[in-house]
């Protein structure tokens, strides 16, 4: 092996070297019979979402555009961070995007293209469902230690745009223009051999703009350590963090209630309570109305199930055609800005764009499909992660108003 880690380099991905071998063989076969220049339209769809979710959040679009940039094709796709359903309200698999071009020019990119979308969208979707349920509580991505470090920036990025407030990994934060967020490990307290000494050392040596959040479950009961931390740091204490493992947790809601009570009656009502360690969507739903102020979420979001997107031919040389189980023809996706009804409409590439009205609200629906690449040239400007996050949260606000649920 000629490298330190089992990862593909950027140039190897760009050259299609991470593809499945049968695409290479397919292109060679087609070339021998002069069929590799057959013009097709290939559509990205999924038939279902993980965890029984009724909606998802698309991400990985930026990387797909970078993958296909410079190849003679057209790419139409939803904006990064767009909320979608697996099926439209008129009963079709929701078109997430489509590629138009000569099949032989882009066939080898199917594997990496789907990989870029499937994993990233799986993480951003799970993150968005966490935000939807936690809503006004703080969410921090602590999943770097649960995934291969090569994909840490990806999972942190997808978590952040899905609605998280921050990430703990340094590189991820730097790439997004954020400050990494985190508190302290148990190792710090164990080495000092005393919680109070460790908390005071943290307060003494760590940059002043870092919130003082004390880890409170190393040696004693959580409420005992919470009081000790408050008495040690006084008004400099921003919050306390419970990282109690599930094997010792018991009724975590009662533990949180006890901590809140003991802090409040001693005048520390402004001290926030954070929970980490085994936090997932089910736990957040359970604690949505509890006094907990924020969550550090690790493996449940960084290792979220992928969305099983597929890329299928739906048109060949201008004629609709598709395999069984797929809807033929190139389509645009429209959404009603008022009620978020989605419909897919057949479209002949290059023709005038349809202008459907929402059958429920009787207003024009918005075309969500953006022309991202034309003839290999990128036609859109990339947004910053902060802008994408605002877009996602805005859509979540809308579906909360509409009462969508999960």
Give the count of structural domains.
Answer: 2
Query: How much beta, percentage-wise?
Result: 15-25%
Give the strand tally: 18
Biggest sheet strand order reads 13-12-1-5-3-17-18
Shape: elongated
How many strands, what sense, and barrel or not for the largest sheet?
A: 7 strands, antiparallel
Radius of gyration over C-alpha positions, nearest whole angstrom:
25 Å
CATH architecture of the largest domain: Alpha-Beta Barrel
- Low-pLDDT segments, ≥5 res: none
Helix % is 25-40%
CATH level-four homologous superfamily name of the largest domain:
nicotinate phosphoribosyltransferase
Distance between the termini: 45 Å
Number of helices: 15
Find the CATH topology of the largest domain: nicotinate phosphoribosyltransferase
The mean pLDDT is 95
**CATH class category name of the largest domain:** Alpha Beta
Structural class of the helix and strand makeup?
alpha/beta
Explained architecture:
By secondary structure, the chain is of the alpha/beta class. It has two domains: 10-121 and 305-402, nicotinate phosphoribosyltransferase; 136-302, TIM Barrel (Alpha-Beta Barrel). 36% of the residues lie in helices and 19% in strands. It is built from 15 helices and 18 strands. It has helices at residues 10-14, 21-32, 61-68, 103-106, 110-134, 152-161, 170-176, 186-192, 195-205, 222-233, 246-249, 252-264, 281-287, 299-302, 385-402; strands at residues 39-45, 56-57, 73-78, 83-84, 97-102, 138-141, 166-167, 212-215, 237-242, 272-276, 294-297, 310-316, 319-320, 331-335, 342-346, 366-367, 369-374, 377-378. A seven-stranded antiparallel beta sheet has the order 13-12-1-5-3-17-18. A hairpin with a 2-residue loop joins strand 12 (310-316) and strand 13 (319-320). Helix 3 runs antiparallel to helix 5 (110-134), helix 5 (110-134) runs parallel beside helix 13 and helix 9 (195-205) crosses helix 10 (222-233). It is elongated. The two termini are 45 Å apart. The model has no long low-confidence stretch (mean pLDDT 95).
């Amino acid at each position: 092996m000629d490298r330190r880690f089992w990862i593909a380099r950027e140039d190897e991905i760009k050259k299609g070297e991470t593809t499945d071998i049968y695409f290479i063989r397919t292109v060679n076969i087609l070339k021998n019979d002069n069929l590799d220049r057959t013009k097709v339209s290939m559509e990205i769809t999924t038939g279902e979402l993980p965890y029984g979710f009724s909606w998802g959040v698309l991400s990985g679009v930026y990387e797909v555009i970078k993958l296909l940039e410079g190849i003679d094709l057209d790419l139409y796709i939803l904006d990064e961070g767009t909320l979608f359903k697996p099926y439209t309200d008129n009963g079709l698999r929701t078109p997430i995007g489509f590629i138009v071009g000569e099949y032989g020019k882009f066939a080898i990119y199917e594997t990496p293209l789907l990989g870029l979308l499937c994993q990233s969208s799986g993480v951003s979707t799970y993150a968005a469902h966490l935000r939807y349920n936690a809503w006004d509580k703080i969410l921090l991505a602590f999943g770097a230690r649960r995934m291969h470090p090569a994909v840490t920036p990806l999972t942190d990025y997808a978590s952040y745009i899905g609605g998280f407030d921050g990430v703990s990994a340094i590189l991820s934060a730097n790439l997004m223009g954020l400050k990494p967020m985190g508190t302290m490990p148990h190792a710090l307290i164990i080495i000092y051999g005393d919680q109070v000494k460790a908390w005071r050392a943290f307060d003494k040596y760590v940059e002043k703009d870092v919130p003082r959040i004390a880890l409170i479950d190393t040696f004693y009961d959580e409420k005992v350590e919470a009081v000790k931390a408050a008495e040690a740091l006084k008004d400099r204490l921003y919050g306390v963090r419970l990282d109690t493992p599930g094997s010792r947790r018991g009724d975590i809601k009662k533990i949180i209630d006890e901590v809140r009570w003991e802090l409040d009656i001693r005048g520390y009502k402004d001290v926030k309570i954070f929970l980490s360690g085994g936090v997932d969507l089910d736990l957040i739903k359970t604690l949505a109305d509890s006094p907990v102020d924020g969550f550090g979420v690790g493996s449940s979001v960084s290792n979220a199930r992928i969305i099983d997107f597929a890329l299928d031919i739906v048109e060949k040389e201008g004629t609709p055609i598709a395999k069984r189980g797929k809807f033929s023809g190139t389509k645009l996706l429209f959404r009603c800005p008022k009620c978020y009804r989605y419909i897919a409409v057949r479209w002949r590439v290059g023709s005038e764009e349809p202008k459907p009205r929402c059958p429920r609200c009787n207003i024009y629906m918005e075309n969500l499909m953006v022309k991202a690449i034309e003839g290999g040239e990128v036609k859109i400007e990339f947004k910053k992660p902060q802008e994408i996050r605002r877009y996602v949260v805005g859509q979540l606000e809308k579906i909360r108003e509409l009462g969508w649920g999960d």
